[in-house]
Specification:
The chain is mainly α. Helices cover 69% and strands 1% of the residues. Helix 4 crosses helix 6.
Length: 470
């Protein structure tokens, strides 16, 4: 199992300074979705690996062990599970939107870490872990998704030159260092067809300036290559020296004495024939030595020429590399200068076009003003004409009305007099009718009174008769 205690020394790591007091980490953005792509989040929540196996993991150490054993890449989708070939628009994986697939164990475990609500100490333990680079990668990815953008450079500052390698692609084929991965996190918005949370433009400018101003260290591979070249050259010099060693005569015996003694002894034993054979043998040995020396010299010359050619080739390669680098830099500077010049020319052209447009606008405004003034004058003339016509019409109407009133007055006076006479006659008739009615009413009253009196008299007479009879 992965031991969480095996971590890099935290003294070499620059701790974040701004806004990071205490052990509680701030969460930036959506506190429920961890700012993940909705397609990835839905696939994580619906995957049986997350719902069944990761549900049983309750502690930080268990999740770290699971990362150690199960994670082998940092891509959000498994290999071959998400096919976007031939699809366009909102279904083609454009801008973080796609058809989905089998979500990777790395992102399932990343969201599991988010559900645990990591502390600062636990997060530092992830990014400084020594057992697996994928544990560190998930820690840095957790920072990229959950921490405020202004604090990202403080978190990543001590690891931008980290040379630990990992293969981030599903199925292999994309090896990069931790430092390169962190630089891509800070400068790029996409990570294998998914989107990171957006960094505000002012914060992004500050991050770019700090990365450009930061001196980039040479990787250890180049340093090791240079050291290997130096050691090879030293070994080659030692080999040259070892091939032609100086032979020192041994102090125990003197070869001259032994040779002279043996020579005199042999001469006494074998005679002059032996001397001839001995001379022939010496000549043959001399020739062999000379041939060997010539061969050794030729070999040494060939080795020297080879070494010189190799050193020349290496120097040429280095020079070509430097030239290509300088040429690329010069090309970049020329492109930048051209772009600047082009931008200046464009600005000038825009200014000229702007001035031209201003001149044309002024002319147009002048034409419009002149046209407007002419139109205003016409309108004023038309209004005055309409007013005069209205006045004449009003005068004519008033005159016709007066005539009508006069004629109506004359006709109306006669009609009124006739009406008055008619009303007087009607009143007279009414008065007459009223008098007649009053006369009739009085007569009817008198008659009724006489009748009552006569009836009363009759009743009295009858009473008197009846009394008298009694």
């Amino acid at each position: 199992m992965a031991n969480v205690g095996n971590q890099l020394p935290t003294q070499a790591v620059s701790k974040p300074a701004s806004g990071k007091h205490g052990n509680v980490l701030p969460l930036w953005g959506n506190e429920k979705t961890m700012n993940l792509n909705p397609m990835i989040l839905t696939n994580v929540l619906s995957s049986p690996y997350f719902k069944v196996q990761l549900y049983e993991l309750k502690t930080y150490h268990e999740v770290v062990d699971e990362i150690y054993f199960k994670v082998n890449h940092a891509e959000p989708w498994e290999k071959g599970s998400r096919k976007t070939a031939g699809q366009t628009g909102m279904c083609g994986g454009v801008r973080g939107v796609g058809t989905g697939g089998i979500v990777s164990t790395a992102f399932c475990l990343l969201y599991k870490l988010f559900t645990l609500k990591l502390t600062r100490k636990q997060l530092m333990g992830l990014i400084t872990h020594t057992d697996s680079p994928y544990i560190r990668a998930l820690g840095f990815m957790y920072i990229r998704y959950t921490q405020p953008p202004a604090d990202l450079i403080d978190w990543y500052d001590g690891f931008l030159d980290d040379e630990e390698e990992l293969d981030v692609k599903a199925g292999g084929g994309c090896v990069m260092t931790i430092g390169e991965m962190l630089r891509s996190f800070l400068t790029k918005l996409e990570w294998f067809s998914t989107l990171f949370p957006r960094i505000p433009v002012p914060v992004q400018k500050i991050i770019d300036q700090q990365i450009k101003a930061r001196p980039r260290k040479m990787p250890q591979k180049d340093v090791q290559d240079e050291e290997a070249m130096l050691t090879e050259s030293g070994r080659a010099g030692e080999r040259r020296r070892s091939r032609t060693p100086r032979r020192t005569p041994s102090p125990r015996r003197s070869p001259k004495r032994s040779r002279s003694r043996s020579h005199h002894h042999d001469r006494d034993r074998h005679g002059p024939s032996f001397d001839r054979e001995l001379e022939r043998e010496r000549d043959r040995q001399r020739k062999e030595r000379e041939g060997r020396d010539g061969r050794d010299r030729d070999r040494e010359r060939g080795d020297r020429e080879r070494r010189r050619s190799r050193s020349i080739d290496r120097n040429q390669d280095r020079r070509e590399r430097r030239r290509s680098r300088s040429g690329s830099r010069e090309r970049r500077s020329e492109r930048r200068d051209k772009e600047r010049d082009g931008g200046d020319d464009r600005c000038r052209r825009k200014d000229k076009d702007h001035h031209k447009d201003r001149g044309t606008d002024r002319e147009r405004s002048r034409d419009k003003k002149s046209r407007g003034e002419a139109d205003d004058r016409r309108h004023k003339d038309d209004r005055e004409r309409h007013r005069e016509e209205r006045k004449t019409k009003r005068v004519s109407r008033s005159r016709s009305r007066e005539k009508r009133h006069k004629s109506a007055r004359t006709d109306g006076g006669e009609e009124k007099s006739k009406k008055r006479e008619r009303s007087h006659s009607r009143e007279r008739d009414r008065d007459r009718d009223g008098e007649q009615r009053s006369h009739k009413h009085s007569r009817s009253k008198e008659r009724s009174h006489h009748q009552r009196e006569s009836s009363n008299d009759r009743s009295k007479h009858e009473r008197r008769r009846s009394e008298s009879i009694e």
